[in-house]
Design goal:
There is one protein chain. This protein is α+β, with helices and mostly antiparallel strands. A hairpin with a 7-residue loop joins strand 2 and strand 3. The radius of gyration is 14 Å and the shape is globular. It contains 2 helices and 5 strands. The chain has a 5-stranded antiparallel beta sheet, covered by helices on one side. 20% of the residues lie in helices and 22% in strands. The termini are far apart. It has one domain: HIT family, subunit A (2-Layer Sandwich). The site of 2'-deoxyguanosine-5'-monophosphate (DGP) has 14 residues, from strand 2.
Amino acid sequence: MDNCIFCKIISGEIPSNKVYEDDKILAFYDLSPQAPVHVLIIPKTHICCADELDSENCEIVGYIFSKIPQIAKKLGLENGYRVVNNCKEEGGQSVFHLHFHLLGGKKLTLQMA
Ligand code: DGP
């Protein structure tokens, strides 16, 4: 999609530090890490946000979660991690291409807002 930062990362137009890639998804380090390990996992098809998911396109979410254990292991997150999705403005979303934050590398506190 034009003017989507993450679509440009997928196409290679914007460089990223990749952790995992296959034909459906890409995982790369977040530019502004909020934890010692902070990776973003995105589908290669453009979906704006979790609120845009429906029965036609939601399969990719299960696929992403099926790959998270493998990605977490590669990142050394054997002791645990957090997966976060921010949805739309009031949910704290700033990049409008569906993504999951994979955070870890320390004992995380519960911060709801
Ligand atoms: P969110 O606020 O949930 O939409 O998270 C968007 C994240 O994307 C935020 O943590 C910073 C990250 N980010 C924004 N632009 C870039 C970029 O160009 N490269 C990388 N690696 N991360 C980015």
